[in-house]
Model the fold of this input.
Amino acid sequence: MKKRIEHLIFKHFDEHLTDEEAKELVEWIENGNHEKFNAYTDLNFSIESTKNKKNQINPSLWKNISSTINNPKPKIRKLHYWRYIAAASIVLLFATTFLTEKESPPAAVTPVKPKINKDILIGTDKATLTLEDGSSIVLEKGKSYTTHNIKSNGEKVTYKPVDTNQQNSTKLSYNYLTVPRGGQFFIELEDGTSVWLNSESQLKYPTAFLTGKPREVELIYGEAYFDVSPSTKHQGATFKVLSNEQEVEVLGTEFNIKAYQDETFIYTTLVEGKVLLDNKIQKEYLNPNQQLVLNKETKNTVINKVDVSYEISWKDGIFSFKSKPLKDIMKVLSRWYDVDFTFLNPKLETTKYIGVLSKDQELEEILSIIKNTNFINAYEIKENTILIK
Done:
């Protein structure tokens, strides 16, 4: 059985899993083997997407990885493994050495755990809730907040559904949920729509929607994943997400919007259902596994087919980077760990990296992995600024 699982994980790494094999691997993971699977991912190492196709993994190194699986690391947050493995696209980054040429295999590298800077904290669940009267409540782990229609346990905030028979108001009351750098938060709106907010994001929404009227929220900035309560449950009322540059209309679907203030592009990725995007110049429909990229400056748009697992993994506790420039990766890390990055060698900014890493990892563990792959030469931490060399 052990050899069979190793075979499946290796095929998963090589992106050759069939649907049946992926299902088999998921069942093994969910059958009490999360920690063992994490042992493989903890030994991750990065490979360049442009490596010569003749490159192979040193068999002796695979044996070392295999032996490590019986000494699992501490469990990280449980993931939606099926979504990632079924996509057959996660790159397992084994923390060992890959052969760059068959003729000259390098020696195996023993990963060295970096000295952790305790001043740099891992991101956590936290947000500020701003009520209609302007008052603010800090939401964070260990603190609860409750009113007649709002409930928070410090990890999420939920709005109580309004009885439509008692809903006589024609005026909407708005709240704001603001997630700082180093934070994330989950909210369930009054209509049952679920929203995951990423670091450095702000959402404006009504405390209750009007019966039969369009349900509208505004992503003022940042990134959010929406699992929308279908219109069939709300007398046909459509759901819209507004932003400065576009409007997304849905009937009942799952999608992700990334619209940070310091980025030129807005990314809208559809997971399930169908959406209509309107940027005031043109309208575009999206189908599942499509991503519309809007240039905020030129208003030009392009629709790409994407692997949605990479685009939405952040909400399940995972950093997924698929041939992303280091400059973009450092932006993601800066928001989660609340630090700033400076590239001392500008050429490194465009270096592309492939990796799947846990958001529960210390920042220096991630930087050490990137450094050990020779994507960067070194890094230096000066208070809350990371110098990339």
The chain is about 20% helix and 30% strand.
